[in-house]
Amino acid sequence: MDSDYSALGAGLGIVGWLLYMAVIVFYVFCMWKIYVKAGKPGWAAIVPIYNVLVQLEIVGRPWWWLLLLLVPVVDIVIGIIIIFDLAKVFGKGTGFGFGLLLLSFIFIPILAFGDAKYQGPAVAAQ
Question: Is pLDDT of 38 > 80?
């Protein structure tokens, strides 16, 4: 009887892992599309550290903000600023920025597959 539960648990674990991996692949694909919309190479979305540098370039922030992302607590504030800047450079408002912040699993695909156009980093500076 215990082996039946073990097999069921293992099966559920595998299904859960596959679902988790599918979500990650979809998120990476969405970020790839966002980078391409912004005129950057899509592959940059999958390269650690470089993807942050490219995102900073997309939103018009200096490269040294990457260093600020290494400071505890400061990284949270900088991350929120980058999220709101990302909404702005694609012509979206503060409400969409809150959506990206709180419901990113819904708003990232909207940004990637929707009709939002990249307007350049000058928009975020306003």
Answer: yes
Q: In the block, which residue shows the tokens 């299904």?
A: 15
Identify whether the C-beta of residue 117 lies closer than 8 Å to the C-beta of residue 91.
yes
Q: Are 121 and 60 in contact (CB under 8 A)?
A: yes
> What b/e sequence results for 59-83 when a residue is b if at least 16 CB atoms lie within 10 Å of its CB, and e otherwise?
bebeeebbeeeeeeeeeeebeebbb
How crowded is residue 106: how many other Cβ atoms within 10 Å of its Cβ? 10
What's the pLDDT tens digit per position in 41-51? Answer: 999 999 999 99
How much helix, strand and coil, in percent to the nearest 5, is found in the chain?
75, 0, 25
Let me know how long the chain is: 126
Q: Which of 111, 94, 106 is nearest to 32 (CA)?
A: 111
CA distances from 21 to 8, 58, 73, 108, 126 (A): 20, 27, 29, 17, 38
DSSP one-letter code for 91? T
Q: How confident is the model at residue 14 (pLDDT cuts 50, 70, 90)?
A: confident
